[in-house]
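Key result, reporting period 2: structure in, sequence out.
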């Protein structure tokens, strides 16, 4: 009887062993469940975020899908602390097994399965956990769940065959999702502690490894004490494994859990407007006219030019990988090296915030109690209501309700029903109660800004600010939006005059001038400046004082079509510029980026440099895929460029730009202020020998503006931002900009005379201050 029982047991055991062998063999062959191909095991299909680097080596941000914000880091760039913490906590015999830890598995079966001990520890090795992360799909039924573990075991054994222990650890840490859009150890270290993985301290590494058990439950942002407790468990495991001493463990466990949490979001961090602009440029598709609406023909024109002439535009669409597929900005782990300097970018963002915060207070005060606020009293209440209604219909809330079948009455009621919300203020988000319609009006109160700064010699864009806050105000006013430029267009008029034979010393009578347009209609510009009325004044004086009458006088001697062509040669691509006599006062719309690029011709001997945003693109392994060089074009003669230098310096030293000096900028510079009708737009363009920067400030729409010149002119709205930025830049000696640097003229050059015999290639120690003293 006993022999029969033993025989049956041996047969039963043999059947079980045979069944297990059959199951595992079938799994390995892919007959049961899912088994990835061998080539997938050798080359896991990782998705890595693209990194955007500043010129000085800082990471400005990443491009990724929401669940794949992963940046690859190699084993040699991992701190030993993170490796030790991971092995001690998750798989202490990691170096001794080949994918499956039999001891840990047996312990887990006995203690958990038979004795029901919840604190018995898991049986999964790091390799098994990696196989689950890489290849294990979610189980939809009991049968799939039954085979899930054996499948993971088989994959784990294969992973051990194809990879070294170091590679498995590296893959695991690169793959794990640490929550808060921090996928992979590199992003996690930066997100939670503001450092790279090789700089993680022991207690920091322990906290991150502690999250591996259950990142949602041990989320340090939401549950600090709970995460601290889990961190201390990891530290104790490190003590048991001999990685730290008992004394170190005690002292580290006593530390509070302190984070340097930085939210990973395309709306957060540095250079948000720049990063979004660059994303659109890199991902651009080949323009097809049928894809553009009638009012987008200007955009189609610009995109068509960029597609043909700008190698960065549509780069991901134009270039392919070795396998013939196009580059994916979100998953291919590209490294994009930009021309932005993180320090200068920070100074630009600080300057915009500091001044707009102050200026906004004046604007709120001016509009307080006005029924039409923030709009000017120049428009009717009906027009205000029409604008606000149009904005409402462009909102996501309206589109969602309309798509859901809500009636106009229901939508109107919803937009006029108070509700809790958080709104933007210059002192941080504020919780309040207001109707969605009131929130639309509230946000229209805020003044917008655009700022860009670039090197006039190589086109490198050093700073780029498209608005006050990308989270709340998406529209980019640096390179995308265009506004009327007002008097900042006058240097083009004076340049055309210099090209036509005039000099800064030529004189005109300071009186009103009436010009006749192509339709035979008279046009007489107004002038804020009545000083020296009836006297003879120089052209230089006219530009320095932004005098409309002297500008009109020059326009009477020039051709509007020639002026339009000159403006276009400076890099302005707005096809809607009208070649009329009034063009000389800047009614046309131009972007900040176009204006900054155009002004590079003045300190650069007549050569305009197009903005250069990216110097090179590398793949995930550091191989250079593309390099980019500046686009340069001679737009005016060297002689005219020097004459314009003389006059644009006078704007600062003798004219409307003098406030720059009072705000602390002592550098040799030229510039031009600009204000459009009714103070709708405030501009300032300024340049030193090594840096050209421009700024625009205004409302979201032209009917949102200051009613008086006190705060509404360009010298009040835009110039202070430029000045604050330059004071910071010149004060930072690590940037290499010298406040004592001066413009130089060639030997023998005289801006008041014919310079046909001057050698413009010669250098001179003669500065511009030697003229007009």
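The corresponding designed sequence is given below.
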């Amino acid at each position: 009887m006993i022999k029969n029982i033993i025989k049956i047991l041996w047969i039963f055991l043999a059947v079980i062993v045979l069944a297990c062998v059959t199951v595992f063999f079938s799994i390995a062959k892919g007959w049961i469940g899912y088994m990835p191909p061998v080539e997938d095991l050798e080359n896991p299909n990782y998705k890595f975020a693209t990194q955007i680097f500043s010129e000085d080596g800082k990471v400005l941000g990443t491009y990724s899908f929401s669940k794949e914000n992963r940046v690859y880091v190699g084993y040699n760039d991992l701190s030993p602390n993170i490796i030790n913490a991971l092995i001690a906590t998750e798989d202490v015999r990691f170096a001794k097994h080949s994918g499956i830890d039999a001891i840990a598995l047996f312990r887990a079966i006995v203690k958990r399965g038979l004795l029901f001990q919840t604190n018995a520890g898991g049986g999964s090795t790091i390799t098994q956990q990696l196989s689950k992360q890489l290849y294990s799909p979610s189980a939809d039924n009991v049968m799939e769940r039954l085979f899930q573990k054996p499948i993971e075991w088989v994959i784990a054994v294969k992973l051990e065959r194809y990879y070294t222990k170091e590679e498995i650890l590296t893959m695991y840490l690169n793959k794990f999702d640490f929550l808060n859009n921090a996928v992979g150890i590199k992003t996690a270290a930066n997100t939670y502690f503001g450092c790279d993985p090789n700089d993680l301290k022991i207690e920091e590494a322990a906290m991150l490894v502690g999250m591996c058990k259950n990142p949602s439950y041990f989320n340090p942002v939401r549950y600090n004490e709970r995460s601290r407790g889990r961190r201390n468990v990891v530290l104790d495991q490190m003590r048991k494994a001999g990685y730290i001493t008992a004394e170190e463990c005690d002292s580290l466990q006593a530390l509070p859990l302190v984070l340097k949490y930085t939210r990973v979001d395309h709306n957060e961090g540095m250079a948000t407007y720049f990063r979004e602009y660059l994303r659109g440029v890199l991902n651009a598709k080949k323009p097809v006219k049928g894809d553009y609406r009638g009012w987008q023909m200007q955009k189609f024109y610009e995109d068509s030019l960029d597609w043909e002439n700008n190698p960065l535009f549509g780069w991901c669409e134009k270039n392919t990988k070795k396998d013939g597929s196009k580059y994916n900005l979100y998953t291919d782990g590209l490294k994009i090296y930009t021309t932005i300097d993180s320090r200068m970018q920070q100074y630009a963002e600080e300057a915009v915030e500091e001044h707009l915060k102050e200026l906004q207070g004046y604007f709120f005060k001016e509009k307080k109690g006005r029924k039409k606020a923030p709009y000017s009293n120049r428009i009717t209440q009906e027009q205000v209501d029409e604008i606000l209604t149009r904005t409402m219909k462009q909102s996501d809330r309206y589109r969602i309700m309309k798509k859901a079948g809500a009636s106009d009455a229901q939508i109107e009621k919803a937009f006029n029903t108070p509700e809790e919300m958080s709104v933007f203020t210059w002192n941080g988000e504020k919780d309040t109660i207001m109707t969605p319609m009131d929130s639309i009006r509230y946000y229209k109160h805020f003044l917008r800004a655009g700022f860009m700064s670039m090197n006039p010699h190589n086109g490198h864009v050093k700073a780029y600010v498209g608005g006050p806050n990308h989270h709340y105000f998406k529209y980019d006013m640096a390179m995308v939006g265009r506004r009327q430029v007002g008097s900042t267009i006058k240097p083009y008029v004076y340049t055309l005059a210099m090209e036509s034979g005039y000099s800064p010393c030529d004189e005109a009578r300071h009186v009103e001038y009436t010009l006749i347009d192509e339709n035979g209609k008279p046009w007489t510009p107004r002038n804020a400046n009545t000083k020296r009325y009836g006297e003879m004044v120089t052209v230089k004086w006219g530009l320095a004082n932004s005098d409309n009458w002297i500008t009109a006088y020059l326009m009477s001697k020039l051709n509007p079509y020639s002026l339009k062509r000159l403006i276009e040669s400076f890099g302005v691509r707005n096809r809607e510029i009208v070649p009329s006599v009034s063009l000389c006062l800047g009614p046309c719309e131009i972007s900040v980026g176009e204006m900054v690029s155009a002004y590079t011709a003045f300190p650069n001997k007549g050569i305009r440099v197009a903005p250069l945003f990216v110097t090179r693109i590398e793949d995930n392994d550091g191989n250079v895929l593309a390099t980019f060089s500046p686009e340069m074009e001679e737009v005016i003669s060297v002689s005219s460029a020097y004459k314009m230098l003389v006059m644009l310096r006078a704007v600062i030293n003798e004219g409307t730009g003098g406030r720059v000096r009072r705000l602390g900028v002592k550098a040799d510079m030229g510039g031009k202020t600009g204000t459009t009708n009714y103070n709708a737009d405030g501009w300032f363009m300024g340049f030193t020998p090594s840096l050209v920067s421009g700024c625009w400030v205004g409302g979201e729409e032209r009917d949102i503006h200051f009613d008086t010149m006190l705060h509404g002119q360009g010298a009040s709205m835009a110039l202070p931002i430029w000045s604050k930025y330059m004071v910071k830049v010149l004060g930072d000696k690590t940037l290499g900009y010298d406040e004592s640097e001066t413009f130089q003229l060639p030997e023998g050059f005289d801006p008041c005379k014919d310079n046909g015999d001057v050698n413009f290639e010669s250098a001179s120690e003669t500065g511009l201050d030697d003229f007009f003293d």
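The two ends are 125 Å apart (CA to CA). The first strand starts at residue 50 and ends at 53. This case is discussed further under Risks and Mitigation.
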